[in-house]
Amino acid sequence: MVMREDQPADARPPAVQRLLAEHSGARERIVDDHMFVFQRHGYPPSTFRLQLFTQLGLRPVAVVTQTAGEGASLINRAERYVEAVWQRHCTDDPTPPIWIQHQLLREDAADDLRHAAFDVTGPHQVGSPPRWGARLAPGDLAELVSAPVDLGRGSGFLPRPPEPEPQLRYTTALVALLPRPDLETDQRPCMRVGLGWWHRVGRQLRPTHTGRSCCWYHRGDWHEVSRMAIATATAALRHGVEVEDVAAYVLSHATADHRLEGWSLEALESLFVEPIETHRPIGYVGGRHRAKAMMDAGVRRTLVVLYTSSHGD
Hints:
two-stranded antiparallel sheet; single chain; 9 helices; 30% helix
């Protein structure tokens, strides 16, 4: 087996040790598709590099690599992407391949390898959200398949032609009118229930400001966080801050202000770092769990982002 050189095996995170103990073995790379194309009705097309390692008697390992500008990220669409790879390349297997994803969004993230596991809900179907495992080092991945793995995007990568730069815009949205979050298969009961229209209406009539212990999303007061997000974004724009710099402006002031701390500060940061964004065909580009928590709390309005083209689309 290929051993990791930078630290002894017993210094690895427990999740990595379990993964290697249960699944490491000599495999052969049978697929190296530099432009795997994900296409499904209702979803914008996306691409990534797929390397598939297999061996008789061992579970296949899929190593997927994606850079910016290839469509929905591996983080946001992991469930749909693993379903596509499973159906196309491991059709007869009862479970999806072991999924190792490599998101190249920053120069310093070249070795950011993440294992994700999924709960099977049907033939070539998995539930949400993924069960994120520990991050792997390149040596861990090499040991998993007993061979070095190319972590580059691949010489066959064809960047998309540049498109007109969409314009970022902050706006407010009525929470009750946000799209229905597609959380029916989520493993958390608090996310699966109360998705209907009447639940939203009832919560608007009887809002709650008290957090719950079921999950991070329900832990605090989204009323307060949403009000602060709307107020600070509006103030930043009124003071002439460029829209691209609003997030940095708001977060620096919020940290220095001390009006929010702990969960509330984290929640405020999330509305700027990973903003709620909706898209007509698919519902949410990001933020569906936070939207659900806001619906449950009866939040009236919250901050969302829109991207508009020069043609106003």
